[in-house]
Amino acid sequence: MGASTSSLPAGELDRISIESGLSKQSVLTLYKRFLQLSTHRERDSGQYFLTKEDFLNIEELRLNPLGVRIIDAFFADAEVGEREKVYFYDFVKVLSHFRPINKNKPHLWNTREAKLRFAFTMYDLNKSETITKDEFKNILQMMIGANVSDEQVNSIADRTMREADKDNDGYITFQEFCHAMEKTDIEQKMSFHFLA
């Protein structure tokens, strides 16, 4: 499994480092991991890519109750979803959401709002730009499994909807989600410190 070469095409390292805000070393670390996971290569360009099946072969994602949602995040970009292939650039773009925020060097891919948008998409199962009580319950059940009764899950979902759905329309919008997450330190909760 995986590709054997470990160098990025000429100019790609600098471009991806600049565009992602990641250090060159972090980009290279991600590239080595990407190549380990890649089982496909374009005939024309020679570019490696991942499919959903490749992600499903990653044991950590298979075991994670939100693994399918995490995998979906890699395919959320319309172009990526249409081609059903994740190239290295796409891989970095998603993972750069987990870089610790550097307030002295703000970066478009890694702002508080970008992290919140990413988290929001994890709950928005039908990609409607809103979160329903059923979607929230579905994610809760994925996270806690059979450890909590349906009654308790319903109670948590009801309380969350009452608190977050400010206009009482039965949906949580992105703005309502951001408001509900105001006191959450999303910058720390969504950061892998090896990405710098």
Automatic annotation (TrEMBL):
Coiled-coil boundaries: none
Name where it's found.
Cell membrane; Cytoplasm; Nucleus
Q: Where does the EF-hand domain start and stop, copy by copy? A: 111-146, 152-187
> What is any one GO biological process for this UniProt entry?
protein transport
Q: Which GO terms describe its molecular function?
A: calcium ion binding
Organism of this sequence: Pristionchus fissidentatus
Write the protein's name. Answer: EF-hand domain-containing protein
A Pfam family hit:
EF-hand_7
> In which family does this protein belong, per the annotation?
Belongs to the calcineurin regulatory subunit family. CHP subfamily.
